Amino acid sequence: MKIAYLVLIPLIIFLIKISPVFSKDFVIFSIAEEIPMGTEGEKIKKNYYLNIGQLQGVGSGATLDVYRNISRLDPYSDKTRYYFKIKIGELEVLHSEENASIAMLKNFEKENNLLYEINAFMIGDEVNIHGIKTKTN
């Protein structure tokens, strides 16, 4: 019985340590921006805080794709709900730590003519390393 505990305890500790690596979704969890002063030609800096970092292979200068999950209900058929995962832009990582990063806007896709409720990145938008295909809902 003691041998079983000696094997189980290190295994549980190991699984707890690596669990952040296998996080289900990586998202924007916070946004910080400068207060606009109203001057002409003013550029407002905005930082995006992400729950993806060095353990997931993200370092300074990395490009991350940003996706918005949109769902719509079809009232005409059998009330089926449809889910869409749409790429809305890219972020560039400024600073990366073990499980978190700070990024800035690299590209926001305005030209695709899709209607978003908010025409900017927002908390809850998913992020993924640029070039890696994501699963669709």
Structure notes:
- The chain is mainly β.
- It has a single domain (24-33, 45-137), classed as Thrombin, subunit H, CATH 2.40.10.410.
- Helix content is 12%, strand content 36%.
- The protein has one helix and six strands; from the N terminus they run H-E-E-E-E-E-E.
- The chain has one helix spanning 2-18; strands at 28-33, 46-50, 63-73, 81-96, 101-108, 126-129.
- It has a six-stranded antiparallel sheet with strand order 1-2-5-4-3-6, with no helix packed on it.
- A hairpin with a 7-residue loop joins strand 3 and strand 4 (81-96).
- The longest helix has 17 residues, at 2-18.
- The protein is flat.
- The relative contact order is 0.22.
List keywords for this structure.
single chain, 137 residues, mainly beta, Thrombin, subunit H, six-stranded antiparallel sheet, flat
Secondary-structure blueprint:
Elements: H1 2-18, E1 28-33, E2 46-50, E3 63-73, E4 81-96, E5 101-108, E6 126-129
Antiparallel strand pairs: 1-2, 2-5, 3-4, 3-6, 4-5
TL;DR?
Helix content is 12%, strand content 36%. The chain is mainly beta and 137 residues long.
Q: Do you know the CATH topology? A: Thrombin, subunit H
Q: What are the low-pLDDT stretches, counting only 5+ consecutive residues below 50?
A: none
Distance between the termini: 44 Å
Strand order of the largest sheet: 1-2-5-4-3-6
Number of alpha- plus pi-helical segments = 1
Q: How many strands, which pairing sense, and closed or not: the largest β-sheet?
A: 6 strands, antiparallel
CATH architecture call: Beta Barrel
Approximately what portion of the residues adopt beta-strand conformation? 35-45%
**Helix proportion of residues, in percent?**
10-25%
CATH superfamily: FlgT, C-terminal domain
- Specify Rg, calculated over alpha carbons: 20 Å
The top-level CATH class is: Mainly Beta
The domain count comes to 1
Q: Give the helix/strand class.
A: mainly beta
Shape field: flat
